[in-house]
Amino acid sequence: MPRYKLVVEYDGTAFAGWQRQAADRSVQQALEEAIARFVGGPVRVHCAGRTDAGVHATHQVVHLDLDKPWRTDTVRDAANAHLRPEPVAVIAASEVGPDFDARHSAVKRHYRYRILNRRSPPALSRGFVWHVPWALDAALMHEAAQLLLGRHDFSAFRAAECQANSPVRTLDRLDVTRTGEEIIVVTAARSFLHHQVRGMVGTLMLAGGGRLTPQGVRDVLDSRDRTRCGPLAPSGGLTLIGVDYPADLS
């Protein structure tokens, strides 16, 4: 039974998240239904990261097993043909060995968060940015972000419903830069807790607005108290932009 790796992008606005839901439309459901239509039977796809409702992806990675071999360009093109008009596209398809697992083989995940920092609301990027109309100091946000790097208990930024066995994670990257009216937060780690990125961004926003010092952001982390976390940044500003795998599996 051949195994395929797909790179998928999607606009998460209209979906209830990646994972199949009892009633609401999900990205997983859209992709599984599209592939099932051309292979002639049900399929199950497994992803690298289960994104929340409203979260986007430019580089989600999934794997699936099919009953017979297919050309990889056929898998890509047929999936896309049956996905229309869903805002989901298969960017690449490749055949991988049975040891490849989109989730468990991943060694790092990369996310980007976009903040539109201007007085006027967005017209063209609505649903893809967090509009913050008051002035933010991106340099101060970056300074605070560096105090969160490393291996820590991230309970302060963890959703109450998070099902991870441990709140300890190793944060490899958390960079904040400004490009014109946008503030971009890029982060990377092997794995993240549920709502961790959005919680960190909301807390960094407080630092950028002068409501927390950089040390104050670190104090939130050290408190392990999620009631001290800043506002949860809206899901629409968040995009999964990359997943890394060992060279012998990618």
From TrEMBL:
It comes from the Bacteria. The keyword Mitochondrion does not apply. Keywords: Isomerase, tRNA processing. Substrate binds at residue 111. Residues 7-103, 144-246 form the Pseudouridine synthase I TruA alpha/beta domain. Its EC number is 5.4.99.12. GO terms for molecular function: RNA binding; tRNA pseudouridine(38-40) synthase activity. SUPFAM superfamilies: Pseudouridine synthase. The keyword Isomerase applies. It catalyses: uridine(38/39/40) in tRNA = pseudouridine(38/39/40) in tRNA. GO terms for biological process: tRNA pseudouridine synthesis. Pfam families: PseudoU_synth_1 (PF01416). It is an enzyme of class 5 (isomerase). The active site is at 52 (nucleophile). Homodimer. Belongs to the tRNA pseudouridine synthase TruA family. Formation of pseudouridine at positions 38, 39 and 40 in the anticodon stem and loop of transfer RNAs. This is tRNA pseudouridine synthase A. The lineage of its organism: Bacteria, Pseudomonadati, Pseudomonadota, Alphaproteobacteria, Hyphomicrobiales. The gene is truA.
